[in-house]
Amino acid sequence: MSSEIDEYNGGSVLAMLGKNCVAIASDKRFGMKLMTLGTEFPKIFQATDKIYIAMAGLATDIQTLSELIRYKINMYKLREEREIEPTTLAYMVASTLYERRFSPYYVSPLIAGLDKNNKPYICNMDLIGCVTTTNDFVVGGAADDCLLGTCEALYEPDLEPEDLFETISQSLISAVDRNAASGWGAVVHVLTPERVITRTLKTRQD
């Protein structure tokens, strides 16, 4: 296992596009290298009714950055008198990370959401805010190599919400079962124009 500081606490996150829907998922483990300290550590945070942000990396930086982004989203809503769009949030997070580029937050953020026209959007970025948008899936965290492999094998375009849930769940479970720094259950959010479906998953607990 890598000794990089952003993998010190473990954890993995994943977002995936579907047909007029989007899904975002994370494991629940909180550890110190290979020692598990907790099994209910939140890595996904609700930005608006239709946007979620997930972060893997150093636990203290996840907590600090999530609170800072929540503050900035609230200030944006007060100033603009409207909800923030996914692309705007992506560049808000990116600029926040770039401001700290000489002493960075050790996190790998993913953003998944639906814009005002209900068009799905996902992106990820590195620890200094370089944004990558795709039309299939984005991954981050300790099991990112395994996640890329399972997503490449299982993903299909234009998945309906239930099929998207099944695909992202199987991708995440297969990947974290092969990574000692991730696991102990998972949570999945599927965002559709009508509602948000949230489900928890059981995974290996060893």
From TrEMBL:
Keywords: Cytoplasm, Nucleus, Proteasome. Belongs to the peptidase T1B family. The keyword Cytoplasm applies. It is found in: Cytoplasm; Nucleus. GO terms for biological process: proteasome-mediated ubiquitin-dependent protein catabolic process. Component of the proteasome complex. This is Proteasome subunit beta. GO terms for cellular component: cytoplasm; nucleus; proteasome core complex, beta-subunit complex. Component of the proteasome, a multicatalytic proteinase complex which is characterized by its ability to cleave peptides with Arg, Phe, Tyr, Leu, and Glu adjacent to the leaving group at neutral or slightly basic pH. The proteasome has an ATP-dependent proteolytic activity. It holds the Pfam family Proteasome.
